[in-house]
Design a protein that fits this description.
483 residues, alpha/beta, FAD/NAD(P)-binding domain, Enolase-like, domain 1, 5-stranded antiparallel β-sheet
């Protein structure tokens, strides 16, 4: 264990980071690169939710499911798929990528960059002070010369419905760390976690019932959720949209669970998973000692400095600021805020104008998100509705992927759709959405176009290779030019 007492006997540092997930690691790395001393406090595993119960294990589990689905879309390869997935090997693959829930490698990374690791629950204790408590150890008080950065993430929210306390429901943690395939699995929630878990467990052999109050993936263009719903249905899942659970009962802890829905129907399953939102993990970190409400989302400026706290020392990064509950966006915030902390500590001017070195401008304009369903759904920037509500004068352009020869070669009878949202006054893209097999690898090109505000007259000169799925860009731009 890398203990900060080894190098900082007085427990005073330039920067203290609460949370050693990817977001906390990024702010620590950039602060250290700028010459500041850093202590990172972690109550669980170094690497956080993403590394052990979210992004990494879910994608490790989903990849075999999608790989088999991709093979079945290609004649010649389809005939070679003669059996079911080897679930033991799939779970072993997951265990490999989460390093068997051993965080020593990520703890070593902190040591390598020169940051100290303090194990325990960190709580603010007034301005620039953090008290750390750990079982079997005396409390320690750390002091920050320049900044405290909160990167503690979020927790799943369970709905307040009768019977949920005794139902032993799954959340994302059980959904990614279970090594037993339930014969029947009910999933409540149609957002990203819900649809990915439905894809995963249906592919592993569960009979999945997905229950969603709203259309799937409601923050994307509607066609993305519709194509994902169609894909789940074709895979054998029972997709129920427009209903919600009103009660749950499990009289025998080892027996089945029954969900009552508001349309009067019931769903019986061996396990039930709720993917119904997240809450900030800020209820027990001492926010009240600096005048903030415990358990609240934290409002931040463009450098991720928390508003309402005097002295320009408290930062909030990742899920806790509620800007975009996505690991990659939190890491971006961590890099940007780490550099801002260094600049403030050195009393250098901040470059916090839009798209500046110390501004998280992409949080408002170019957030990319991908869901590894079958088909995949990927988007960046604003949807057409969001752009219109924001006051932009826009035009949408839709193209079916079958227009691209590369898509047809990628998968026989390829089914997918793309949309770009054009700002008519500036001739740039405000948003792009793709839905179809393999579209996750198209998203970064769209992100560059949106973040870079590339004029469409210039974008047409970015020639897509033939025959690739990315040829869809040619057909989108041609459709726009021809009106």
């Amino acid at each position: 264990m890398n203990d900060v007492r080894d190098s900082q006997a007085d427990d005073t540092y330039d920067v203290i980071v609460l949370g050693a997930g990817p977001v906390g690691q990024n702010v620590a790395d950039h602060a250290r690169a700028g010459g500041l001393t850093v202590a990172v406090v972690e109550r669980e595993l170094v690497g956080g939710e993403c590394s052990y119960w979210a992004c990494v294990p879910s994608k490790a589990l989903l990849r075999p499911v999608i790989a088999v689905a991709d093979a079945r879309r290609v004649d010649g390869a389809r005939q070679a798929v003669t059996g079911r997935l080897d679930t033991d090997r799939v779970f072993a693959r997951r265990d490999h990528y989460v390093t068997d829930w051993d965080d020593s490698g990520q703890a070593a990374f902190l040591k390598d960059i020169g940051a100290g690791l303090v194990r325990g629950q960190g709580r603010l204790d007034g301005p620039r002070r953090v008290t750390v408590t750990a079982e079997g150890a005396a409390p320690r008080t750390l002091t920050a010369r320049h900044a405290v950065a909160i990167a503690t993430g979020s927790d799943p929210v369970l709905p307040d419905i009768p019977g949920i306390g005794g139902a032993r429901p799954w959340t994302n943690r059980q959904g990614t760390d279970s090594s037993t395939v339930p014969a029947r699995l009910a999933i409540v929630g149609g957002g990203g976690v819900g649809v990915e878990m439905a894809t995963l467990w249906q592919g592993l052999g569960s009979r999945v019932t997905l229950i969603a109050r709203h259309p799937l993936l409601p923050r994307m263009e509607a066609f993305a959720g519709e194509l994902v719903a169609d894909g789940l249905t074709r895979a054998g899942a029972d997709v129920r949209i427009g209903v919600q659970a009103t009660a749950v009962r499990r009289p025998d802890p080892a027996g089945p669970v029954t969900l009552t829905l508001d349309d009067g129907s019931e769903v019986v399953a061996d396990e039930v998973m709720f993917a119904t939102g997240r809450a900030p993990r800020t209820g027990d970190i001492g926010l009240d000692t600096v005048g903030l409400a415990p358990g609240s989302w934290l409002d931040v400026d463009t450098t991720c400095l928390v508003r309402g706290v005097e002295g320009d020392w408290l930062y909030a990064l990742g899920d806790v600021n509620h800007r975009a509950l996505l690991t990659h966006q939190g890491k971006y915030q961590g890099r940007t805020a780490g550099d801002a902390i260094v600049a403030r500590a050195a009393r250098r001017p901040l470059d916090d104008a839009p798209w500046g070195d110390h501004a998280t401008t992409a949080d408002q304009h170019a957030v990319p998100q991908v869901f590894f369903t079958d088909p995949e759904a990927a988007a960046v920037g604003l949807s057409a509705d969001e752009a219109t509500r924001a006051g932009h004068r826009v035009r949408t352009v839709d193209v079916d992927f079958t227009a691209a020869q590369g898509a047809n070669l990628f998968a026989d009878h390829y089914q997918g759709r793309a949309r770009m949202v054009v700002d008519l006054d500036r001739d740039i893209l405000l948003g792009v959405t793709f839905a179809g097999p393999g579209v996750s690898e198209l998203l970064h090109s769209a992100t560059i176009a949106v973040a870079g505000e590339v004029p469409l007259k210039r974008l047409r000169h970015a020639v897509a290779c033939f025959p690739t799925v990315s040829e869809v860009w040619l057909f989108l731009l041609t459709a726009y030019e021809r009106g």
